TrEMBL record:
PANTHER family: DEHYDROGENASE, ZINC-CONTAINING, PUTATIVE (AFU_ORTHOLOGUE AFUA_2G02810)-RELATED, ZINC-TYPE ALCOHOL DEHYDROGENASE-LIKE. This is Theronine dehydrogenase-like Zn-dependent dehydrogenase. It holds the Pfam family ADH_zinc_N. Keywords: Metal-binding, Oxidoreductase, Zinc. It comes from Oscillatoria acuminata PCC 6304. SUPFAM superfamilies: GroES-like, NAD(P)-binding Rossmann-fold domains. One of its GO terms (molecular function) is oxidoreductase activity. The keyword Nucleotide-binding does not apply. Belongs to the zinc-containing alcohol dehydrogenase family. Residues 196-264 form the Alcohol dehydrogenase-like C-terminal domain. CDD domains: FDH_like_1. Its cofactor is Zn(2+).
Amino acid sequence: MKAVCWHGKNDVRVENVPDPSILNPRDAILKITSTAICGSDLHLYDGYIPTMQKGDILGHEFMGEVVDKGPEVKNLNKGDRVVIPFTIACGHCFFCNRDMWSLCDNSIPDGKLVEKAYGHTPSGLFGYSHLLGGYAGGQAQYVRVPFADTAALKIPEGLTDKQVLFLTDIFPTGYQAAEHCNIQPGDTVAIWGCGPVGQFAIRSAYMLGAERVIAIDRVPERLAMAREGKAETINYEEIDAGEALKEMTGGMGPDSCIDAVGLEAHGTGLDAFYDKAKQSLRLETDRPTALRQAIVACRKGGTLSIPGVYGGFVDKFPLGALFSKGLTVKTGQTHVHKYLKPLLDRIQNGDIDPTFVITHEMSLEEAPQGYEIFKHKRDNCIKIVLNP
């Protein structure tokens, strides 16, 4: 089969690799019908996530048709059309039983390395380094799905791939980020980053009852899409985001702040240049520019929600502000399994049409070009769907 394989920083290639096979009775094999390039894939592409190996298959947003299954997968049949969460979860451990699917105890085969780094093991992820399980990803023609009896959501007739593909990651991620804010009537939510997750966070915040959403970015087409979602916008290259938020909220600050940027945040201040220099020398793993701004901007007693991916250590973290303002912090990989059916219902009810975020469709063979377009935000690119 053909698959998008990682070969180093800024180097992905479409190669012929062996087809996947059933390894466990709870496995299924999917023929991929749609997959996508995610913003967090760029952290791999840019070389910031350790333990990648040459030839690793990328991709964690995918859906397809069941073509084979293990004997313990009783709830699926060959030919079923399904979406798969990017987080891999067993369905039976302490955390899965409490709807904390991205914290599954049993989906990383050898968790010694990540346990040493983080204290405990999170769930495994598709196509996202050997630190997180070494699983082959879904930017391919076929993929093996572990714990398929727990993971797969069958898609009803009448819905296109493009309508449901983002149930795999970015829609639940944006929704969980907004849900973490515990939005109350009249609340103002500020969102750093108008990429795909930020766009879904905007619309989710309104679905959950926010009165105002203010979105911060620098890319014109992303800001325009945010305004289409009824957000007020701030271009941080034109005005100071913190001062603007104070003025827009009467000096109070937003009730909740969402960092939908993560470890490769850009900025214009001295701290942004400091972070970029230290990260390039590997003296700091993550650039927390947006995170710092969100902590300082949030109103006293407010909530900080962090769906943006962070991998290691940050410098100059304003812990004093976080403490003194009494902020609540909610973060973590998305518990995608928890949201699959409720958000499918949202789509079917017409509350949201997730296709709004798609700007580019390409073949699997064009993936290397797609990564470059997406990374450098060329051609007004916000989200790329790949068709194997």
